[in-house]
Design a protein that fits this description.
CATH topology of the largest domain: D-Maltodextrin-Binding Protein, domain 2
Function: Part of a binding-protein-dependent transport system for a sugar.
Number of domains: 2
Oligomer: single chain
CATH superfamily of the largest domain: Periplasmic binding protein-like II
Helix content: 40-55%
Protein name: Probable sugar-binding periplasmic protein
Strand content: 5-15%
Radius of gyration: 21 Å
InterPro entries: Bact_solute-bd_prot1, SBP
Family: Belongs to the bacterial solute-binding protein 1 family.
Keywords: Signal, Transport
Mean pLDDT: 88
CATH architecture of the largest domain: 3-Layer(aba) Sandwich
């Protein structure tokens, strides 16, 4: 990935990012954190504080304790808003020059501001030390690389362009759950049938889930090349192709249950799980919610790419950084080693619903993953990879924040399609100034 141009000033809004941190060069080898019974403290900031994410973190911590018993894990997770609360606290800690030893961020353009502000370290040497350039597929390495350097280590890979559908609700509307709509128009027609059958066609949650839905609609109408062109200037945000996508987005939002627009993804997904709604578009962390409700894949529910995006994999990855100013550099490196190890990736991803970043797992190791994850791993190896806007892989934080605000305003009835398109085009302007 080529660096997207600096966001001038790294203002407070830019700092409302996926993370902040510290991880200095030349830190003491025994770590600078307070000593605890397990060795020097390693402060790790994430937003994994609920549901399958919390369970996945707990699984990672267990592996960390086994692999690095000389360090003591300090869980500095902050819950709320898909990471927004954690990002606010991290911004404050960074401004106070009190970074954690490592922090969670989304791999990709979301890290641009930190890189330009020299707030996170190049960890390319760790990739060599841990043999990650061989363990991770080239398609992933390319998306992690900025001007020849790598600044984070992924714990997983997620797919964002997934429709989750309740099979009973579809059948009640006269739809065949095994037949996926060919495009957005066909999908919207199916939603109309669900509405006529007296059930909710689709649920949509808070702003970031609305933006995630929008990016998948853009993918469907623009295709992979057109969608990617939104980030390098080849596709105009104010062009007719985007207008068509926004018209489709409006039709879908008009069919959505508006009562969930201020809720996180889990409450918005629950009607699909319980059988009062047909569809929800969400990343594949949602599989853990269905598992937790004892729902069976391809029986109680189905999952498929957003219509029109078959053959595209909307990529995001949770990753961790080595911040400039870390008090425990060696402890942070130990955490990065754990999350990238086979043991760590298997323990975490089998719980969270994501797929491992590593592509070197044996058949026996792969057999530990569920049926949906097996399908997702196959797609990641075969499909065209595109990057998520909502999850920071495609755009710097200031851009995704502004788009988030524009979509939320539109969802609440504060603008029309023309107004939304104008605001999206304005939000994208910093990407044209690289």
């Amino acid at each position: 990935m080529k660096r997207i141009g600096p966001v001038a000033g790294i203002a407070a809004l830019s700092l409302l990012l996926a993370a902040c941190g510290g991880g200095a060069k030349g830190g003491a080898k025994d770590g600078g954190g307070d000593k605890g019974s397990g060795g020097s403290d390693v402060s790790v900031v994430s937003w994994w504080e609920a549901g399958s994410e919390k369970k996945g973190l707990e699984a990672l911590i267990d592996v960390f304790k086994q692999q690095h018993s000389d360090f003591k894990f300090v869980n500095a997770a902050v819950a709320g808003g898909g990471g927004s609360q954690a990002k606010q606290k991290l911004a404050a800690d960074l401004a106070a020059k009190n970074p954690p030893d490592t922090f969670q961020a989304h791999a990709g353009a979301e890290l641009t501001d930190y890189i330009d502000a020299m707030q996170i370290e190049d960890v390319s040497e760790l990739y060599k030390e841990y043999k990650l350039t061989d363990a991770f597929p080239k398609s992933l390495i390319d998306r992690l690389t900025v001007d020849g350097k790598i600044y984070s280590v992924p714990s997983n890979v997620h797919r964002a362009n997934v429709v989750w559908a309740n099979t009973a609700v579809l059948k009640e509307a006269g739809l065949d759950p095994t037949q996926q709509p060919a495009d957005l128009d066909a999908w919207i027609a199916d939603m109309e049938k669900v509405k006529a059958a007296g059930k909710t066609p689709i649920t949509v949650g808070m702003a970031w889930t609305q933006l995630q839905l929008l990016e998948t609609v853009l993918m469907a109408d623009l295709g992979a090349d057109g969608y990617n062109g939104l980030f390098d200037g080849k596709t105009a945000w104010d062009g007719p192709e985007v207008t068509k996508a926004l018209d489709h987005f409006k039709k879908i939002m008009d069919l959505a249950d508006k009562s969930y627009l201020n809720e996180d993804w889990e409450p918005a997904m629950n009607p699909v799980i319980t059988g009062t709604a047909a569809y929800n578009v969400m990343g594949d962390w949602a599989v853990a919610a269905f598992d937790g409700a004892q729902k069976k894949y391809n029986e109680d529910y189905v999952a498929f790419p957003v219509p029109g995006t078959k053959g595209m994999f909307d990529f995001l990855a949770d990753s961790f950084t080595l911040p400039v100013g870390s008090k425990n550099v060696e402890g942070a490196k130990a955490w990065l080693q754990t999350i990238s190890s086979k043991e760590g990736q298997i323990a975490f991803n089998t719980v969270k619903g994501s797929i491992p970043a590593r592509s070197d797992l044996s058949e026996d190791e792969l057999s530990k993953f569920g049926e949906y994850q097996q399908d997702a791993m196959k797609s990641f190896g075969e499909d065209t990879i595109v990057s998520s806007i909502a999850h920071g892989a495609a755009t710097p934080v200031a851009v995704s924040n502004a788009m988030n605000d524009a979509v939320a305003k539109f969802a609440q009835g504060g603008s029309d399609v023309a107004g939304l398109q104008a605001e999206l085009a304005k939000a994208a302007e910093p990407m044209a100034k690289k």
